Amino acid sequence: MISAWRLTNPSQSVKERMATTYEEAAVSITITSLTDILAFCIGSISPIPAIQIFCLYTGVAVFFAYVYQITYFGAWMVLFGHMEAYNCSGTTCVPLQRIQPMKGPAFVVKHTPPPPTLESAGTSRRSNSSNTTDSNDNVNNSNNIKTKNLRQRNHAVMVFFRDYYSQLFSNKFCLCGIMVLYIFYITIAAFFCSRITLGLQKANIAKEGTMTHDYLTLFAEYFAETGPSVSIIITEPYPYWNSSNQEVLETMVAGIHDNENLKPRDYTDFWLDDYKNYLMNMNGTTEMPQEDFVSTLRDIFLKIPHYEKYTLDINFDGNEITSTRFLLVTSNITSTMDDERTMLSVRRFVDEYSEIIGVPIIAYSTQYVFVEQYVVIIPTTIQTLSIAVACMLVVSVVMMPKIAVGILVTISVASILVGVIGYMTLWQVSLESVSMFNLVLCIGFSVDFSAHVAYAFVMSEGAKLNATEKLSRALYLLGYPILQSGWSTIIGIFLLFFSASYIFRTFAKIMTLVMALGMLHGLVFLPAAMTTFAKIFQVPSVKREEARRPIRDQGHWKSIIQPFRSIE
Question: Which ranges in the chain are annotated with CATH 1.20.1640.10?
Fold first, then answer.
């Protein structure tokens, strides 16, 4: 909105300038905000509760940010517009020079004069009548004199984008170079996407330098051979006193150890093994009536100091054992794939035996809080990103006057996502819940730069310009704001790279990639694609003499409504 305000004519009233500002900025802001909200709404369908909460919170925040931008922020622009009209100080709000505001038609110019040309003032335009030309020149000179002190100077960066940078895209060698650069970019990104690593290291949850972080780091380094234990829990009563049932349980325990990532049977901590040995030594048999079996277990066996550890493994309700557990010990867990494979194998096995014995059995480990994320993170990420890109395609096609440009914006968003995933892997960032938060953010931010540039390109349709001139207008309006937005964000999060928290460092890395690749696509790849495809689709060009005129001498830039009028 600030960029659109800069392009308005200072000789107009604040009301007219705000109307022009909203004409040029409101629709593109609506497109990007709508796609951001859709992206976060889609992210809220994730099966991971933390991501659901994050996406819902952020989606609501983006909605209110959009509402405040087109209302509250606009109101402040009006106030500062009046300050600008009266040449007030931005700090004290006091006029720097006492001026008497002009009244009547002399102050509010109804017809906006064209901006000054880059060519010499003596160069005259071609026209059908020299008298008409002289008359127009006199009117323009008169208006220029009246508004000389009110006219704003173009920022040097805006001029650079309009007069120099945009001209590179009309050079076929530059376009070929950009094509080679993009192939190089997407190839490396795709390669590292296939090498992505999964999982959040437990040590990264804690702040670096704390005892918790040091403990988890040392444990992963020196005790990887012996992993966390897995509890196999029989959740309902079962006749343990029956010898045939004891054999079924023994077969189950022996069968579950076929898993290569579990320690041998001797490492299993099962109370029934020791209790059967105790009964054999005491009575010569392991089969007893239920009451004797339970009372001996509870009142005698668990009172022996060596077997008190089993107290936490058995729940009693009178003379009935309501639930029990035994512990397995994992080993050789060197990757997240080992964790995932072990968990799925054990759970599949206990589900089968749960049907055999007719009692529910579950497998649980404290590590499974993380491992369960490994199972769903890739399909959830693919699903979320795919649906989000599809929704952006629909929004872009509907909101953009040119369908081809909407498709290019969607391709640009998909390309940025591939780049972020690939290069974050190169930056040693794994795919887990923390990085998935940031990828959902990436969906929203990645569309901003590309959508604004594409819409600005389409907005010039009614001005009868060729592709290069449309791009010149688009970059003149948005090149500088894109650089400001991208680099200010990168500078703002730069200190997070030095944070002791893994979460903050991950956020800084991914957000830096989003901003850098967003600027790369918005200012390099997408302009090259729009210029190339505009020529292929044979977008109507202008007369040679009009094309030779400088961009800022071709009249005031028509607003967003113009492309729709030209279509009608």
Answer: 2-110+151-196+373-567
